[in-house]
Amino acid sequence: MAIKSLLLASAATLVAATGARAADAIVIPEPEPVEYVRVCDAYGAGYFYIPGTETCLKISGYVWYQIAAESYDGNDSPDFQTYGSYPADEGFIKGVRTRVEFDARSDTEWGTLRANIRLQADWGTPGDGPVGIDQGIIQLGGLRMGYTETVWNDSIGAGVASYGSHSWGGLSYGYQQRHQISYSFGSDQGFAATLSLEDDTLGGEGYMPDVVGAVSYNQSWGAIWAKVGYDEDRSAIDSLSDDGWGVTAGVHYNIPGFEGSSLRVIGYYSDSDNAYGVGSPALASALVAPVGGFGNSEWSVLGSYYHQFTPTFGASVGAQYFSDFYQGLTDDSTGLDGYEAELALVWVPIENFEVRSEVYYDKIETLDGTVSGFLRFTRFF
């Protein structure tokens, strides 16, 4: 009987001890799986998947520092570098620009859905910060809407059929940014076309936009293109309100046997001083544009050649002739001609670091010519 009691007591003790251990047990949760950033190679280098989504994001930009100078003294042709902002002032003009760009893309049954935001700030010429949204667009397939370069300058699928000469300044090709809704089809590997409705800042009829059309054809040998722009109201001044239009056509030819080297020739015609023309430095001259304006001439021809001397060094030369500048915002002739010339040197000693120098000469008939230029250091990322 004593042995039986001892066994029962031992069993009870073991059960109690086991229960105590079960009550005090620490449960360690399984670690959550870590989602590493995945490279997205569907849209080129630099894209990655935003964690938890199928959207690809690229972050890019640059920082530059430049030192510039110009010879404008208030009585000369306005210079290309500063448009005559520093008459009779002597000394170096320093400037810094910072830019960050976010590009988000994803595939849909309607084509690629894209959003692009560009933030930018300048210190020195032309301004001193703060950071602002320089551009912002939404794109779905060939449909693009937002604030960016006018189709007169660039469009989807245009390839090399964009902008002006080979230099950063590009000579005079009517650069501007505008609110727009555009539709493009084709690609930069062949034929492409774009139609764009662009903001005219409530001028004229108010609800009527400006209209720009562009066609281009890119191949391994180069490209050809043509564009037309209709400015529904070329002036915010009621007494000068009227419409206007311009056309441009060009060719880009890659030099056989010299990889990276090319020749560009572009022609422009405008029926008045409107938004779609060359936009030359003449707009800053009181003699040519007494009430402001775009700086257009009736017609203009631009030629530019770029040669890639080594894998790290290249240079370009360019010139442009202007026939018969318009009085600002009108179709009235001044009878004045002019021309510009440029030299650009580009050295890329290491990846993503560029040293660039550009020198310009500007001359309007009856005015002395001016010289301007800059030395710039840029770090891209």
UniProtKB/TrEMBL annotation:
Topology of the protein relative to the lipid bilayer: Multi-pass membrane protein
The entry's keywords: Cell outer membrane, Ion transport, Membrane, Porin, Signal, Transmembrane, Transmembrane beta strand, Transport
GO CC list: cell outer membrane; pore complex
Keyword check for Transmembrane helix: no
Principal cellular location given in the protein's record: membrane
Pfam families reported in the protein's UniProt record: Porin_2
Signal peptide: 1-22
One GO molecular-function entry: porin activity
One Gene Ontology biological process: monoatomic ion transport
Family affiliation: Belongs to the alphaproteobacteria porin family.
Protein name per UniProt: Porin
